[in-house]
Amino acid sequence: MTADLPVRAAGGPSGAVPMTAYRSGALAGSAPVPGDKSISHRAVIFGGVASGETRIRGLLEGEDVLASVEAVRALGASVARQNGQWLVRGTGNGALLEPGHRLDFGNSGTGCRLFMGLVGSYDFTSTFVGDASLSKRPMGRVLDPLRLMGTQVLAEAAGGRLPVTLRGPRVANPIEYRLPVPSAQVKSAVLLAGLNAPGVTTVVEPVMTRDHTERMLTGFGAEVGIETDRDGARRIAVHGQGRLTGQDVTVPADPSSAAFAMVAALIVPGSQVAIPGVLMNPTRTGLIDTLLEMGGDIAVSNRRLSGGEAIADLVVRSSELKSVRVPGARAAAMIDEYPVLAVAAAFADGDTLMEGIGELRVKESDRLAAVASGLRANGVACEEGADWLKVSGRPDGRGHDGPYGGGTVATHLDHRIAMSFLVMGLASPRPVTVDDTAAIATSFPQFVELMRGLGGRLEG
Ligand code: S3P
Asked: Against a cut of 0.90, is the pTM above it?
């Protein structure tokens, strides 16, 4: 691994790194958040399988993406970091090599599932492993379409879990596949497998999910067709075995990381925080739409394009928030933001209802359960259903059982649970402790430093 990268904080005897957030004065300043995680994974993967050189600026140097860097290396690409940029020299489409060791994706569902697709259509054997969180997550959603393409699943743990060993067919079968769950990871896995199949592989998605894969595939020279059928479903077709050519990629700031600074600025009185260059792809802006509906003061300016993606600068000021109903139709556009939205809702006036969020149960943790128990542990009233959450907010941070805070939150190796509840502590009358912050390094290694720089009181 490259020497000057951020490293995970050392934990105590259990390996856990607890932290406590205290009520803070007004947050102020600029919060430059790191590169988008989804785009970073894809830039590394497409660079690794393209011919020639891909130069990546603004790559997220979090553990999840670094696991993808190691995986493309194991498949024959060369990757170097030079002056803060990443140079990937790819193998050329169809020319990945059989890995000489198991591919370890750590905590990363995106890396694991996208690479299963990428190598699943190759006539070689590969084994996928991950940490305790990833090993609990369902992989069947990717293995099912791969089986239809001719991939053999030589080994899997019960319920389609890691470790998984795949063996691709001599020649993969291009398929048309309708997504049974709205998942950009599954869509991307099938399209990536299609890159090495003769003919056209098509994914049909009834609910639109983040579209970075199809955008970037086009940018790297793949022949990609996108149509909307009569029922409103998107059909994304990739022509296999075409040439991919290395590109210059600039990764915009991650809206899913910006979310923590945004919500902190909204709920800590007197705050004003600027966040430059945030990705504004409409498949990712559901949280901003929701916070605006809640009365959040979020100014969006300087809208522009960067590397084929919309970006803008944000200025967020503390606001009196009111409760809303968040429709299930919006879930895909803010799927990673519900934990921090629940924190905003705890400080909004009234009951906020979030519907159609069953997918939260199969993220890095069961996020519905983790959020509900973290809120309750800190005095916030909430109700949890199979696929919904209702949070009863109090703008003054005083629940029925007394002032918010005073509890410890179990983070279950989930970076977004850890960051969300640290944000909660910055606005709560009593401190909020999270049991382990180590997983924050998977997506946002600078989180603690950045929040302290704005004036947040975080003590480890
Ligand atoms: C991602 C897709 C989403 C999201 C994840 C990143 C991606 O997962 O939760 O953090 O980069 O494709 P699903 O595809 O499971 O919805």
From this structure: yes
